[in-house]
Sequence to fold (137 residues):
Amino acid sequence: MTHLEPTEAAAIATLRRGIRGPVVMLNLLRFRRVADYAATPDLAPPAPVTGAEAYARYIAHTRPHLEASGGAILFDGTGGPWFIGPEAEHWHRALLIRQASLEAFLAFARNEAYLGGIGHRTAALEDSRLLPLAPVG
Fold:
């Protein structure tokens, strides 16, 4: 089973957490070997690209919308095998994205200009995880 979009139940559970103030989103990403633009052929490059290359296109499209919403990429790094975790599980990339609030994140995620390039993300990813993190205390 892959996870590329939030379920309604997950969105409700996130809102019920009652996170106030800044939120950091932990993104774990596993890329396709070759990006799949079947759902958004209008975004497809002229020649096939890797999932990582498609995700780079997504980041280039997304960054201005993220920053305009008050968000920022705090960390962007490569993954690999777990130090502590399932041996068969791996993630190619991990990102930490800060937003001013959960509301700001949700507004960003509904922005039509941002959504115009989300097909690059869909084409790029084989699987993903997104975990909202709130400061302790």
